[in-house]
Design goal:
This protein is α+β, with helices and mostly antiparallel strands and 472 residues long. It folds into two domains: 275 residues, Beta-lactamase (3-Layer(aba) Sandwich); 80 residues. 22% of the residues lie in helices and 22% in strands. The strands form four sheets. An eight-stranded antiparallel β-sheet has the order 2-1-12-11-10-9-8-7, sandwiched between helices. An eight-stranded antiparallel barrel has the order 13-14-15-16-17-18-19-20. It has a two-stranded antiparallel ribbon with strand order 3-6. Helix 2 packs antiparallel against helix 11 and helix 3 crosses helix 7. The longest helix has 17 residues. 40% of the residues are buried. Keywords: Hydrolase. Pfam families: Beta-lactamase, DUF7586. InterPro entries: AmpC-like, Beta-lactam-related, Beta-lactam/transpept-like, DUF7586. This is Serine hydrolase domain-containing protein. One of its GO terms (molecular function) is hydrolase activity.
């Protein structure tokens, strides 16, 4: 093991069966650079303390902490096992608990909330709309600032009363109340507290032992930093009651890094890969007038499209705390950041992840022959009318058109001469190979579109026929 203090930790989760596959470390020069960025952000933002971690291949590749948890010189130094409040990242745990209910056949995403939790004014929104902040439900409670005052019961929240600001499905409207509702749904479905469900079904299997509803062990106090002076004000800490599913949880860098690994695809069978991918599909767009948008919401997760690269994660803020989690969906590389300040931390997580990826690029996997030779008869040029498309075999899939083109899609074989669209315009659509009398491919029938080897091949049964006089 390296003795360089900046070589980064060698981390293994309790759930590992192959330690060597989880052990990650960064180059010492990379670790020094990331430490410098973290220290710079701590000073620039006047953050009492800040802790961060980088995740790759399901493990914590690098982590560090800067500052004292009380914000004073000589105070207790922060470390990667210091608890901070994660705020709205809590919502991602609630969302996964909801999707597990769906996968178990206990509910449908198109069910109205009223079908499972009757008696509220938010009941007309569907479960999918609540998960994606598209149900039109009001953002905050009607009582005192819920983030700084103890919370009450679900029945008290309903009687306050809370309701909808917009027609369900009309637009994105971020709602903490909506996730209070989803927490109540989870609790009623299981007959126990929402956090007990999260602890039992998510935290325990992922060995996230330092994620709790209230601070335990070494924990940073929530602090506000005066905007015009280097002085501090303690923020209140309490049980948010019915609003807890919107932002109650506390965690550490090491625990939150495990959740980032989960978000990057290492779900340890807690959730299927298909369901996680479904949660990342954009449902509502965070559209601010006059600004270009890059952020959307899937089912409980924020998703970003940055110059064509897709990310998923969530931000978090509560009085005294800011947090961030973001993973690059394709690679699974991710970052987590936690600080005990009400304000001051900018878009630091993505900057830290970019710096890491630039200095520690992934080595491409070696190419090897893995195509299906039985499908070679389908490769080459096809024509949809006068438009030209190229078919290729990529591994076990048939790719028709180029990735990123308007109608470029991949297809998986589902039977003899039967394929099904995996992505792009033709996702879920059937492709059928139609053969001539001699058994050779005549044309492709793709969701009623006819692809022929020559433009409008008159022998290929083109719908609407081909003019008898041909091209002229």
């Amino acid at each position: 093991m390296s003795t360089d203090p900046y070589a980064g930790p060698l981390t293994e989760t309790a759930a590992d069966t192959d330690a060597s596959a989880r052990t990650r470390a960064v180059d010492p020069a990379t670790a020094r650079h990331l430490h410098h960025l973290l220290a710079t952000e701590q000073r620039r933002g006047r953050l009492p303390s800040v802790a961060a971690g980088i995740v790759r291949d399901g493990g914590l590749a690098w982590s560090d902490a800067v500052g004292a948890i009380d914000g004073r010189a000589g105070g207790v130094a922060a470390d990667t096992d210091t608890q901070y409040r994660m705020g709205s990242i809590t919502k991602t745990f609630v969302a996964v608990a909801v999707m597990r209910l769906r996968d178990a056949g206990r509910l449908d995403l198109l069910d109205r909330f009223e079908d499972h939790v009757p008696g509220s004014r938010v009941g007309g929104a569907t479960i999918a709309q609540l998960l994606s902040h598209g149900g039109g439900v009001q953002a905050e409670t009607n009582g005192p600032w819920w983030e700084r005052t103890p919370g009450g019961t679900w029945d008290e929240l309903v009687r306050s009363p809370v309701g909808q600001r917009f027609r369900a499905g009309r637009r994105f409207h971020y709602t903490n109340v909506g996730f209070a509702a989803l927490g109540e749904l989870v609790a009623r479905a299981h007959g126990t507290d929402w956090f007990e469900v999260v602890r039992r079904d998510l935290l325990d299997p992922l060995a996230m032992t330092r994620t709790t509803t209230r601070p335990t062990g070494k924990a940073a106090p929530g602090l506000a930093v005066h905007p015009f002076a280097d002085v501090l004000l303690p923020e209140p800490e309490h049980d948010a009651g019915a609003m807890a599913p919107a932002g109650q949880l506390w965690t550490t860098v090491e625990d939150l890094a495990r959740w980032a690994a989960f978000a990057g695809g290492d779900t340890a069978e807690v959730l299927s890969a298909d369901t996680l991918a479904e949660m990342y599909e954009p449902h509502t767009i965070n559209d601010n007038p006059g600004q270009p948008w890059t952020t959307a919401h899937g089912l409980g997760w924020q998703v970003w499209n940055v110059d064509g690269t897709r990310y998923a994660g969530h931000g978090g803020s509560m009085p005294g705390f800011l947090a961030g989690l973001r993973v690059e969906i394709e690679s699974g590389d991710g970052v987590v950041v936690l600080t005990n300040s009400t304000s001051g931390m900018g878009a630091f997580g993505p900057e830290l992840l970019t710096a890491y990826v630039e200095r520690e690029p992934r080595t491409p996997e070696p190419w090897h022959a893995a195509g299906d030779p039985s499908a070679l008869e389908l490769v080459g040029t096809w024509h949809w009318g006068p438009s030209v498309s190229t078919a290729r075999i990529v591994g076990e899939h048939l790719a028709l058109g180029e990735p990123g083109q308007a109608r470029g899609s991949r297809f998986e074989r589902v039977g003899p001469d039967e394929w099904l669209g995996l992505d792009g315009y033709h996702t879920g659509e059937p492709l059928r190979v139609v053969r001539s009398a001699d058994g050779s491919p005549s044309h492709l029938d793709l969701a009623s579109f006819r692809f022929t080897r020559t433009p409008y091949d008159p022998t290929a049964d083109v719908p609407g026929g081909v003019d008898d006089s041909g091209w002229r």
